């Protein structure tokens, strides 16, 4: 790791960003926060963003329209924020003499797969193979940043399906837990659909390690194993001490997202530490889905 005393973080008040800031501060590293949701109102698309970046600092870029729904509802805004905003930030970083740029991307750039074969960073992410607006903007931004002029190390982190204690913006993990806790019947497409769910704290740890690292690379940041939706429901029932009727509406409509995080271990020395059941229990505690409440 390099000796960095200050890191600039965009999207600093978001689900991942807030935890990244906490970790950096705990390490004694000062943080400059850029987030349109904060009181300063600085947006990554504004020309004024360059004034927020001191010379020679590392940049962590998390700000984005970060859900498929948001991007599908307003593709123009998705391109404006996720692509043009990222390029504007890169140019500002170059002008400020930044040394490092960590870009938050997504496993969605790999598209959908019908088998459980692991996908590595060498996989083709051609835009022609993508049907999701969010994935397209992230894949395009990756390529444009890699080709952009400027002598800055670029670390691209492709996040798996992130879950953790939060009250909204849920992945399938939190959504199914809530369904088990609050009803007697849970409907799911295919119980065999599977994801490498990754806890938000493990993601934040990877981001901080990348910010303090050197060199350019692209790595998957994902859970240690595939978890099926059937397993999510079983774990949720165990946590809440409750059994529900499970209705599988599309048993054969199986989708698998299996980004292999091995390279992150080799390059960063990072690996996920929070197992899925432990992480989902944290979510249940945060949401008040205790065994007593569920039985009541």
Question: How would you describe this protein?
Answer:
It is a single chain. With 296 residues, the protein is of the alpha/beta class. It has one domain (6-295): Rossmann fold (3-Layer(aba) Sandwich). It is 38% helix and 17% strand. The chain is built from ten helices and 13 strands. The chain has helices at residues 17-26, 68-73, 75-95, 133-147, 172-182, 200-211, 229-240, 262-268, 276-287, 291-295; strands spanning 6-10, 30-34, 58-61, 100-106, 153-159, 162-163, 185-188, 194-195, 198-199, 217-221, 227-228, 245-248, 256-257. The strands form four sheets. Strands 2-1-3-4-5-10 form a six-stranded parallel β-sheet, sandwiched between helices. Helix 5 packs across helix 7. The chain is globular and about 60 Å long. Mean pLDDT is 92; it is low at 292-296.
A few lines on this structure:
By secondary structure, the protein is of the alpha/beta class. The chain has one domain: Rossmann fold (3-Layer(aba) Sandwich), CATH 3.40.50.
Features:
296 residues; alpha/beta; Rossmann fold; 10 helices
Give the full name of the CATH homologous superfamily: NAD(P)-binding Rossmann-like Domain
Return residue spans where pLDDT drops below 50 for at least 5 consecutive residues: 292-296
Which strand order spans the largest sheet, edge to edge or round the barrel? Answer: 2-1-3-4-5-10
Question: What is the CA–CA distance across the termini?
Answer: 50 Å
